[in-house]
Design goal:
Pfam family, one: ParA
Structural class: alpha/beta
CATH architecture: 3-Layer(aba) Sandwich
GO molecular function, one term: metal ion binding
Helix content: 25-40%
Organism: Bimuria novae-zelandiae CBS 107.79
Number of domains: 1
Distance between the termini: 21 Å
CATH superfamily: P-loop containing nucleotide triphosphate hydrolases
Number of helices: 9
Family: Belongs to the Mrp/NBP35 ATP-binding proteins family. NUBP2/CFD1 subfamily.
CATH topology: Rossmann fold
Number of strands: 15
Keywords: 4Fe-4S, ATP-binding, Cytoplasm, Hydrolase, Iron, Iron-sulfur, Metal-binding, Nucleotide-binding
Amino acid sequence: MPLENVRHIVLVLSGKGGVGKSSITTQLALTLSLQGHSVGVLDVDLTGPSIPRFFGIEGKKVRQAPGGWVPVDVHEAQQLKTRHTNGVADGETAAAAPSEEGQKTGGLSCMSLGFILSNRGDAVIWRGPKKTAMVRQFLTDVLWPELDFLLIDTPPGTSDEHISLLETLLKQTTSSARPNQLAGAVVVTTPQAISISDVKKELNFCKKTGVRVLGVVENMAGFVCPNCSECCNIFSKGGGEVMARDFEVPFLGSVPIDPAFVMLIEEGVRPRYPKGTVVEGKAMVEREDGVEGDKEGLLVEKYRECSLAPVFEGIVRRLVEDVRSRD
């Protein structure tokens, strides 16, 4: 069984489109890798497969092998180079700032319909039965390596893909030697009331199908100004936390919009910030006027220097502790 190499499966869900599920999935995967876990990402958003774009591997294709498909590698398990910083955190001098030399990262691989389409601009015009068959094939025919975590990025709502996904997963994981293989779901929302209203349906969907909610992430909770690093709550803030409290599920954290992360994904530019920017006690690397952005290095290496990385460190640490506590 292809999923027998997977220790924990985590779904990323939302009842509404455009809330940033793929962005959250990408950052969860990068952070898990930075914490030393081997990670796979399965993209079952068949009509809008964006995971290849997020990881910068659009030009790659999956390989056929005896028994199924071989997923595309983002990076192998390795030790990253020293993280250099010219920032100062909490009164420390730059020389005294903690070094990340030799940081071990886990391997990261992906599977998406985007790797199979002959042209990334092709429209996927499929009826329900064909979508259902594709989701089942993704769950039964992908030859994952040994993984600590498999993250499944889903389309919005509670459609055919979700029903097929859960039916197949529950069937396969029930007979698994690991009783907690299907660990649960991370539910993504934005702070606005209209988003909260739709995402509540997803929480009810989880309740009815017996999928444990690992927690709620409130995305787009503010905008980080690229000039001063102040965070403005343009979409309000706190709605996700209130919703999590109402449904008695964990609230994992709020994630602002960071233009530096957008530039990292869109153009591969290493994040840089105004002098003195500190996030979660970590000094961010300063931007140098007149110097073009550095594009060298692996995505996971450059992501370490993003202001969202310390935010996701806390989110992922809570997530992993919860999952492992039930093993």
